[in-house]
Amino acid sequence: MERLVYLDHAATSWPKPPEVAAAMVEALEQSGANAGRGNHSLAIGTGRVLVRARMLLAELFGIANAQDIAFTHNTTMGLNMAIKGTLQPGDHVVSTMTEHNSVRRPLEYLRRSIGIEVDYIQADREGQISLHELQRSLRPNTRMVICNHSSNLLGSILPIGDIGDIVKSHGAVFLVDAAQSAGALNIDVAAMNIDLLAFPGHKGLLGPQGTGGLYISPGLDLEPLMHGGTGSQSENSEQPSVRPDRYEAGTQNAVGIAGLLAGVKAVKALGVEQIHMQEWKLTQLLMEGLAAIPGMRILGPELGAPRSGIVAFVVEGQESAHIAHRLDREYQIAVRAGMHCTPLAHQAADTLASGAVRASVGVSSTEADVQRLLLAMDEMYGVSRSS
Predict the structure, then answer these.
(1) How far, in Å, CA of 96 to CA of 119, rounded?
(2) Considering only CA atoms, which of 162, 148, 222, 218 is closest in space to residue 191?
(3) Environment class of residue 249 by beta-carbon count within 10 Å: exposed (0-12), middle (13-18) or buried (19+)?
(4) What's the CA gap between 138 and 131, in Å, rounded?
(5) pTM, two decimal places
(6) What is the pLDDT of residues 49-89, one digit of tens each?
């Protein structure tokens, strides 16, 4: 059998760099204690791993104080911490039509439960929003603006710096979902006026699943999502005020964070700009080849335009799930089909009824991987098959 071609990096990166697994094994074998829960050498060793990971992430994202990063299990947890820890009854939120359910569902929950107001700015078929419409949507009670850096369906890249300028001038809180950009697009929270940045450890940062983080601006004090043991200020009945303990109740995923540290080191060694350029070239190759398929419609930015490593498409008359199933079973190619947890983006792309097939490249993807997918699609739906 041919080797598996993995083109589902938007869900999670795979395979991980070998040093990620090695770091996790080392953490299990040599420093498997609970950080911050004792003064013995094993606990201190684990704590050092967490400190180094926090510092490297701060360096990557332009964060002045690494203590402003709270580790999470994933981006979803970070987004919930940011949204539920900030918003109060009567607050107004502006978001976009390209958001993941990790943004939409917490917002709709708070709309029902405490009465916040939410507006979703319309996105065009390429996934872009009007900055003029954003400005017009802001109200005196607008507390937060939320947007993704890159759509997990369309691959579009929003002008985060420009949006951040608008949000700052209004005095609102700017929350960015970096699920598809952390490690693949440059992020500088200070230059982009980002107040809250939720990011995964297991995608572009090349770490294991079960890792992620939330940057919290020093000017914000979120209500913690979880309360419990932190190893600090244990005599108090209230959650500690010191960061990051305030937002990290319970035992940390130290083994996972050790792997995340190794993944971030790999990203920094390769260079974020180099990673993005490699992924962009592969998306262009893929789009050029798919365009030759009869009835093909490629979603998101046009050929040659900026995009992340995501190319989603539909084939007229064909079920997206069926295409993905055939690619897996007949050609050993892993892609994802369906709604991708972002129905509003499908609504913007006019694919809400059909869903789409999403191929997403990553650091380990090659031109040969793309060519395998193109050959398979041509065999299934190409000109020779349709004539």
Answers:
(1) 8
(2) 162
(3) middle
(4) 11
(5) 0.94
(6) 899 999 999 999 999 999 999 999 999 999 999 999 999 99
